[in-house]
Amino acid sequence: MRTYWTFLLGFLVFPLLGWAQYDTLIFSASGGFYDDVFSLEMHCNNPNNHIRYTINGGDPTAHSQLYTGPLILDERMYSKSNIYTLLNCPEDQFRMVDAVDHCIVIRATVFDENDEYASETYTNSYFVKALGFDSHGLPVVSLCVDSVDLFNFDYGIFVGGANFDPENPRWTGNYYQRGNEWERWANFEFYEFDNTGVNQQCGVRTHGGNGRRFQQKTMKVMARKKYGKQRFEHAFFPNLSETRFKNLVLRPFLSSNGGCEDYICNRLAQQLGLDFMADRPSVLFLNGEYWGIYYVKEKPDEHYVEDHYGIDSREVNLQWGWWGKVKHGSPENYQALQDWTSKADLRDPDQYAFIATKIDIDNFINYYLLELFVANFDWPNNNVRFWQAGDGKFRWLFFDGDSSLENLQFDVMANATKYDDENFKVASFFFRKFLESPQFQKQFVDRFNQLIVTFFSYRNTQSIFDTINQLLDAEAHRQFDRFDPPEDFYPAKYEVWKSAHLGMTRGFLKERPKHNFLSLQQLAVTGMKWYHQDDTVLLQIGSENFGSGTLRVFDLNGKCVYSQACVLATGENAVIIGSNLPAGLYLVRIGNYCAKVMWY
Fold first, then answer.
1. What is the rounded average pLDDT of the residues 536-563?
2. Same domain, 319 and 282
3. Residue 277 in contact with residue 218, Cβ under 8 Å?
C-alpha cells in the first residue's frame, strides 16, 4: 500500500515541479485594432526570468532583444526584415515595390537565468489607426512564420529553392512540395473590428495547384494538438452557425482574374443547400508586412464533414475527382457503385430507384446545375469532391469556382458530358448515365426552370455581386499597388479591374439567365396553355423530346421584351415566366411554337 501512495505522490508532484519552472508571459494589451499609439508592457511570473522579443515575426531566441521596459508602439516597431523583397516565385512573375504597409508584431518568450527557454512564444499584432492603418472595413489576419521556414533554400516553403527546375518553372519548387515534412510552425491571428477573433499557434503549408507559384500564395493553416488547440474557434463566417474549424485556407485575391468569382459561386451554392466552402475577404499581414487581400475559407476535406455534420472524420469516405482517387477513407463503395452503374439501365424505374438510394439525387442535380450555370471551365475533370458517411448516400461538395462567370459562349453541356478524353470519360460518367433516365430528366428540368427565375436570376445574383464589389473596392487599390497579377491574368491596374473585369462578371450574371446555355437538342413543342398565378404567369408546355431553348416574349410591335433559358422534358412541363410585364397581349415563342398570352 505504501508503494502505491509513493507512486501516486510522485506521479502528481514531479510534473508540478516541472511546470513550476515553466513561466507564462502577460501582455498589457492583446492584439487587435487601436486608435492611437500606446505603451505596451510585458510581465512574467518568475522574477529571476527575463523576456526577449522580436518585431519581425520570427521566433525569439537567446540573442533577441531584451525587454527592459514599456514599448512605444509606433513606426519604430515595424519589421525591418523587408521579406517582400525576397524572390518567392519565377522571376518573370515577381514584382518589386518600393515599400509595403506594416502592422506591429511583438513575439515574446520568457528565458531563465541561463538563457534557456522558460515559456512558449506569445504573439500579438497591433493595427494602429493613428499610424495610418486602414483595412477598409475588412477583418485582418496576421500570420507569423519564422523567416527561415519561409525562405531557406533547402526547406523554405515560400521559395523555389532546392526543388525548382528552371526547365519546368510552372510546376516545380519548394512551394510545390506536400506532406507533413513541409508543414511549418506558425502563429495565426484573426481580428474583427471589436478585437474578437483567434490568436493561436498552428501549422501552415502552401496549398492548391497553380496558386503555389504565384507571388501572392495560397496557404492552409491547421489546428493540431501539438500546437496547443485542435480547432480554430470563432464565428469567422456570419452566414454560418458553425464556429469550430479544424483547417482553414488562406486564398489570395489573385487566385482568379476578378478576385470575386469563387465568392459569388459559394453564395449560390449556399442558397441551393449544397455543401460549400464558406469564405470571407480579409487583409493579410505576413510577419508584419502587408500581403494583400486574402479570403479566409473552409477547406474541403473530411474535417469539413466532421465540423458541419458532427460525423467522426474516420467514418467519412471522401473521393477526389472521378477517376478513383480517394482523399480520405475507402474507395470501395464508390468503385462498387461505378461498376454497378456501368451495367445498369437507368431507364428502368427500379434500377433508377436503386441508384437513388446510393446517390443524393437532389444534391447531384443542384450541384450540376450550379456548375453549368456558372460555366466552370476547370471542371468536371478537376475540382470535384463528393463524400459519404459510412454506407450512406454520396453528396457532392462545391468548391473552387475561380474559373467561372467569364465565358457566356462556353459549351458547358458538351464539357460536362465529354468522353473522348480518358479523364473526362470517367469525370462525366454518372451525369451521362443519369441523362438516360426519363425520371432524372424530369427532375432536372423542373429544378432548372425553377432556378432560372429564382436563385439564378439577375435580381438575386446582382445583390451577391454588389456585396462583394463593395467589400473589395476600397482595399483593391492597395492590392493592385502591391501585386501584379500572374502572367496571362488580367487586369494589372485597379481601373481596368473595376471597369473591364467586374464589368464582364456583371454582364455574365445579367445575360446568363436569358439564353440557352445547355445546348441540348432542339425543342419540339406540341402545345402551350397559360395561367396566372399570383404575380406571375405559369405556362403549361408540351414537348415531344428532352431539349433546351430560349423562351422569348414579344409585344405586339414585334419587340422582344423578355427572355429566359428553358429546358423541357418529354410530356407536360410547368414553366414560370419571371417577369412583371405591363398588362396586355403578348406573343410567347419557344422552339417551333408561338402562342398569345394575356398579362393582367
1. 95
2. no
3. no
In a domain, 389, yes or no: yes
Last-in-domain residue among 414, 435, 451? 451
CA-CA distances (angstroms) from residue 64 to 42, 50, 58, 475?
15, 12, 10, 34
pLDDT of residue 10 exceeding 50, the answer is no
60 near 54, Cβ under 8 Å?
Answer: yes
Radius of gyration of the chain from Cα atoms? Answer: 29
d(CA 519, CA 568): 12
Residues 551 and 564 in one domain: yes
What's the structural domain count of the chain?
3
- Domain membership of residue 537 (yes or no) is yes
CA 120, CA 549: separation in Å to the nearest integer?
65
d(CA 175, CA 222): 17
Q: Which of 539, 521, 522 is nearest to 587 (CA)?
A: 539
Q: Note the pLDDT tens digit of each residue in 305-314.
A: 999 999 999 9
Going by their DSSP bridges, the two strands 279-286 and 65-66 should be labelled as unpaired
State how far the Cα of 310 lies from the Cα of 296, in Å rounded to an integer: 22
CA angle 397, 269, 249 (to 5 degrees): 60
Residues across the chain: 600
- For residue 319, count CB atoms less than 10 angstroms from its CB and return exposed for 0-12, middle for 13-18, buried for 19 or more: buried
Domain boundary among 298, 319, 352: 298
pLDDT at 107 exceeding the cut of 90: yes
Q: 456 lies in a domain?
A: no
Alpha carbon of residue 267 to chain centroid: 11
How far from chain centre, in Å, is Cα 551?
35
Long-range contacts of 225-233 (CB under 8 A, 24+ apart): 227/185, 227/200, 227/201, 227/202, 227/203, 228/120, 228/200, 228/201, 229/200, 229/201, 229/202, 231/307, 232/188, 232/190, 232/198, 232/200, 232/202, 233/198
Average pLDDT, the chain: 93
DSSP per residue, 73-107 = -SGGGS----GGGS--S-GGG----S---B-EEEE
Residues 398 and 312 in one domain: yes
The strand pair at 584-590 and 593-599 is best described as antiparallel
pLDDT at 589: 96
pLDDT, tens digit, 9 for 90 and up, residues 236-292: 999 899 999 999 999 999 888 789 999 999 999 999 999 999 999 999 999 999 999
Q: Are residues 363 and 230 in the same domain?
A: no
pLDDT value at 7 more than 50: no
Cell numbers for 481, please give them. Answer: 499597388
- pTM of the entire structure? 0.93
Q: What range defines the domain where residue 224 resides?
A: 23-298
